Amino acid sequence: MYLSDTIQVVDFLNKFASNSLVTAVSRSRCGTLVKLYGSTEISGFFFHLKEKIIIPVKNLSAFPKEPVTRLEEGLRSNFFGKITAFSVMKEYGKVVKIETGNCELIIPLFAGKSVLIQDKSGKELWRDKKDNGLNLLEKPMKDFPLTFDDPLFWESWFVEKSDKERDEEKKKKIEEKRSKIVSSINTVKEDIKKHEENFAKFSEFASLLKANLWQFDSSEHKTSVILADYENKEKEIKLDPAKTLLQNMERFFANIKKAKNGIENSGKRLVALSTELEKINEISELTEEPKSVFKQKKKQNEHVPYHEFHASNGRVFLVGKEEKDNDELTFKVALPHDIWFHAKDYHGSHVIMRMKKGEEPKQKDILTACALAILYSKAKKGKCGEVWFTARKNVTKRKGMAAGLVNFKNAKAIYVTDAKLPEDLVKV
After folding, report:
1. What's the CA gap between 312 and 299, in Å, rounded?
2. Spatial distance between the Cα atoms of 315 and 319, rounded to a whole number of angstroms
3. What are all long-range contacts of 268-272, with beta carbons under 8 Å and residues at least 24 apart?
4. How far apart are the C-alpha atoms of 256 and 272, rounded to whole Å?
5. 127: CB partners within 8 A, 6+ apart
6. What is the per-residue burial (b if ≥16 Cβ within 10 Å, else e) of 132-149?
7. Distance CA 238, CA 207 (A)
8. Distance CA 143, CA 14 (A)
């Protein structure tokens, strides 16, 4: 954001948000959101010190709450009331001043400087860092053309940029975890190979020594013995000279047991890691699905025809709210390869399970969708009943059919005896 952009936004805020009342301060998208009451054009403004921006906000729902930092706590305690003016302190660079009847909030939009609240006489009331140290510019900042003609474009630009960075960070973490699991799997496979080699080696040593122990004094100490193996070939077996022949044989049997336990434990570890890798791959595939498949852009105050549920593995379920909503969900929101569910012989919601094209559904996800179909139908009282399900492309509606009624083909059925939603299912 250039100084020219900052001046443009602040002029906009001064025009449409002065005389607005500060109603709340919250943390969102790693920046600070100030909600306002009294402006017909915007709902608040947002500033981000690392991004060095201040922008007007119309859609508060695009800025979900995050845990507050010291900055937001300080603003909540010291910055309130009716805003009288917005201005840019150009002599210091990109520094925004926001005045109320009692105090002034000074926001430097560059690194290392403190957000400061002072009274009208200039006395400091609060700051978020020890050092503020605003200095007059020796020469004016360079003048660059405006990024956007309309200051309101900054909101969609920042939200899109923030979402993209968040998705990239999420994918990065998934890839890091995947890489770590694959490395662990390779290590465990190497361990299993070593345990198997030890098992074979010590089994041979122990059986040969046991079969030929009668030839020796079992209390003898030797560095090695040469024995004929089962193909009548001579084999030298290295021994621990500190132990007797009998103790060496017992050591071989102990090593066999150790190798066997190693194979068993490493096998269990390999199964657990492989399962974890499969889950990570499923999550990765779902995060790569175009956002338009999972989330319809919701305009403010627009009716959404479904309830939305997310499972911990990333699976998304949509449940129709009313009979008309069922039609909209099934024929306008759902995609042909999604799976459609409905409680048999009961009035109830259509349930859509989001799927990727060509993807095979997991049994756990099917049971979750069936439970939703029962619990969002007239069968919810008994928590049991039969549920039909089929690919959405198999569901049709004839002209003149009542709302919510459909025809379908190639359906399968599952009888649910005690419908319960899994603990990892979250309603959005």
Report:
1. 27
2. 13
3. 269/188, 270/185, 270/188, 270/189, 270/192
4. 25
5. 74, 114, 115, 116, 117
6. beeeeeeeeeeeeeeeee
7. 14
8. 21
User: Contact at 8 Å (CB) between 125 and 103?
Assistant: yes
Residues 105 and 212: their CA atoms lie apart, in Å, by: 92
pLDDT level of residue 289 (50, 70, 90 thresholds): very low
Return the H-helix or E-strand segment holding 266: helix 245-287
Q: What pLDDT shows up at residue 301? A: 54
Q: Exposure of 64 by Cβ count < 10 A (0-12 exposed, 13-18 middle, 19+ buried)?
A: exposed
Domain ranges across the chain: 3-151, 169-287, 294-427
Residues 2, 141: Cα–Cα separation, whole Å: 9
Separation CA 226–CA 209 (nearest Å): 10
Q: How far apart are CA 280 and CA 160, in angstroms?
A: 25
Dihedral angle sign, alpha carbons of residues 323, 325, 328, 331:
negative
Inter-CA distances, 180 with 33, 175, 187, 262, 269, Å: 37, 8, 11, 22, 14
Q: Is 83 helix (H, G, I), strand (E, B) or coil?
A: strand
Task: Tell me the two tokens of residue 201.
Answer: 């080696």
Which is it for the CA torsion 338, 339, 343, 344, positive or negative? Answer: positive
Answer yes or no: pTM beyond 0.85.
no
Does position 294 have pLDDT exceeding 60, yes or no? no
List C-alpha distances in Å: 366 to 84, 249, 259, 375.
57, 56, 42, 14
Q: What is the CA radius of gyration of the chain?
A: 35
The secondary structure of 106-156 as a DSSP string is EEE-STT---EEEETTS-EEEESSS-------SSPPPP---S-SSTTHHHH
Asked if CATH classification 3.30.300 holds for the domain at 169-287, the reply, yes or no, is: no
> 159: how many CB neighbours lie within 10 A of its CB?
17
- 371 contacts 356 by C-beta, under 8 angstroms: no
Question: Do the beta carbons of residue 317 and residue 368 sit within 8 Å?
Answer: yes
**pLDDT for the residue numbered 148:** 87
* 241 contacts 252 by C-beta, under 8 angstroms: no
> What integer is the mean pLDDT of 180-206?
92
Question: How long is the chain?
Answer: 428
| Residue 286: pLDDT over 60 | no
Residue 165 predicted with pLDDT over 60: yes
